[in-house]
Amino acid sequence: MALPRIYIETSIPSLYCSSRIDAESAVRKGWTQHWWDFKRDGYDLLTSEVVIEELEGGEYPTKKDALSLLNGVPVLTVEPAVLEIVRTYVRHFVMPARPLGDAMHLAVASYHKCDFLLTWNCEHLANANKFQHIRRVNSMLGLFVPSLVTPLELLGENP
């Protein structure tokens, strides 16, 4: 039986390697590290060239570590159809026009039929208040609807 497919969004390697010391970041980092270190083998991990580009952008002390965390994780490409999906998300106010990263992550995960989109972006992605809107637009487009989850939500799973 095939393992569930999980799209690793930028915030996952970023938080895994974070040097932030505030309480919220420390707790999220702990949950992220625990899921990555002990639970990820139960999933078929995927990421995208969008994630790599976001991690490569900017200057931060843990950039090299965040990028190396994704070594060996297959990188999904951004097909022309994904760009049209992004435009539709923006037109239907599913995702903001700026920055386009959130729309790109959702479009790639939906287009490639990932079971989960793993993220700490709870404003635009792992947001229960947005999920029905995302479901409606993806259904209108004939797209798969990935579950939008945080590592915490997958810690109790046994894959």
In terms of topology, how is this protein built?
Elements: E1 5-8, H1 11-16, H2 23-38, E2 44-48, H3 49-56, H4 63-69, E3 75-76, H5 80-91, H6 101-111, E4 116-118, H7 128-141, E5 147-149, H8 151-154
Parallel strand pairs: 1-2, 1-4, 2-3, 4-5
Order of helices and strands: EHHEHHEHHEHEH
Ends apart, CA distance between termini: 11 Å
CATH topology: Rossmann fold
Number of domains: 1
Structural class: alpha/beta
CATH homolog superfamily: 5'-nuclease
Radius of gyration: 15 Å
Major sheet attributes: 5 strands, parallel
- Work out the strand percent: 5-15%
How would the global form be characterised?
A: globular
CATH architecture: 3-Layer(aba) Sandwich
Average pLDDT score: 88
Number of strands: 5
The helix fraction, in percent, is 40-55%
CATH classification class = Alpha Beta
Stretches where pLDDT falls below 50 for ≥5 residues? none
Query: Total helix count?
Result: 8
Strand order of the largest sheet: 3-2-1-4-5
